[in-house]
Amino acid sequence: MNDQELMRAALAVAQNAGASGDVPVGAIIINSNGEIVSTGHNERELLSDPTAHAEIVAIRRAAEKVGEWRLENHTIVVTLEPCPMCAGAIAQSRISTVIFGAWDEKAGAVGSVWDLLRDPRALNKVEVRGGVLAEECSAMLKEFIQGVRKKD
Fold first, then answer.
1. Which residues contact 14 (CB under 8 A, 6 or more apart)?
2. Neighbours of 20 (CB within 10 A)
3. Could you say which of 35, 43, 45, 55 is catalytic?
4. Sequence-distant contacts of 5-9: CB under 8 A, at least 24 apart
5. Model confidence over 134-150: pLDDT tens digits?
6. pTM for the full model?
7. 10 Å Cβ neighbour count for 62?
8. pLDDT tens profile 31-50
9. Where are the beta strands (DSSP E) in 12-145?
10. Active site residue 55
């Protein structure tokens, strides 16, 4: 699967977040064979857990499935640029590649506001490819936000 196909899979996962009132961010983790190991979407509202971002949910599920916390040779695909917490979790889990869709100009930590994963002082080097289907990913987020504002 190419980056666009992978992002479409992450977008499909993101749609599940809206049912619980969560911001529609989705993530998938694939192994070196291109197989989807886990998925996750925002569950902060659902679980009343501020750490239940899509990336964290997917990383926890992948580690459980793989049977260890090191996810070397795995790729995470997420519809929104990871925040500092998620970038830290990606680094700590040793994920080797990050592919993301929409840029987060307010809290992005993989190139927008900060660049934690490619900082020269980082212990692990992570390949980052951003802006994949950025318009589609942004549109899903904007539609959700506009819907929330109409309710208020």
1. 24, 25, 26, 41, 54, 79, 137, 140
2. 13
3. 55
4. 6/30, 6/75, 6/77, 6/99, 6/132, 7/77, 7/79, 7/99, 7/101, 7/132, 7/133, 7/136, 7/137, 8/133, 9/36, 9/77
5. 999 999 999 998 876 56
6. 0.94
7. 26
8. 999 999 999 999 999 999 99
9. 26-30, 36-41, 75-80, 97-102, 127-129
10. yes
